[in-house]
Write the structure tokens for this entry.
Amino acid sequence: MELTLTIILVILLGIEWAAGKITGNNVYKFRNTIVNSVLGGLTVFSEFICTFIALPLFYWIYKEHSFFTFNNHSITAFIVLFFAIDFFDYWYHRISHKVNLMWTAHIVHHSSETYNITVGLRASFLVPVFNIAGYSVFSFLGFDPNMVLPILLVTGLYNLVIHTEFIGKLGWLEYIFVTPHSHRIHHSKHQEHMDKNFGKLFAFWDILFGTFIKDADESKIEFGVADTHGGSGVGSSLFYPMKKIANSVRCEKSWKQKFKVVFGSPSTAEKIYLDRKKLIPMEGEYVAVNRKDFKEEKELVAA
């Protein structure tokens, strides 16, 4: 299975690269592609280790502690599970944007300033760790892990290939499925596009919960994140967000503020960070109020 997926991925990368050469829209920048690939490799390695932990755990929960019992060989159970997983993925993704601890891991995926299939691979090694806790819910609900894993594989592959600029709007399909166009909007760092289009496979969850944007001027879409002070390398992409949250927790004296830094929204945590450093955001940059604070911030970024 892994070999088949690898072959499919290599073919898709080749097609996208060739399309860029033909159209003159080269979405593959050498350094960024290497960084994405290394981050993806680290995540796959983490996922490999976590799978050895998760599978026995999921089977144990399913056999010993499940709340319900289903006929896991029925088509009905499979269909219910398929939609249940996608519904869960919508909220899991949305929470990853709303809780700073989870955003610290998820921001790695969003911090690429180019957009191609390798961005689908780009993630933090912490994501598989969070996934163990998240997807264990289906074992508690009584679904056989043998049903859950193939669905995760299919939806994961689909979510990988929608990271491309070479497929345009798909008309009425935009209202049913997450498409490359709608997901490009999700990756845009413009304020009007932020926290929109969280779906993984189906778009109707976004429509139902008010987070759907169908149309956007693609010329105005700019990929990446606002805070790029950590740099764009492998180490900085992974560890700068962690360092930032750790420094804020360490410096806050109030347990209430520490809790907000970790479990509050990224915007709340960012405000606490800026207040502590006496910095003000200006056109995507941090501007210090005085020379002393400016020096401290420059030292933090350089560290």
User: Anything to note?
Assistant: Residues 234-302 form one domain. The first helix runs from residue 2 to 23. DSSP finds 14 helices and two strands in the chain.
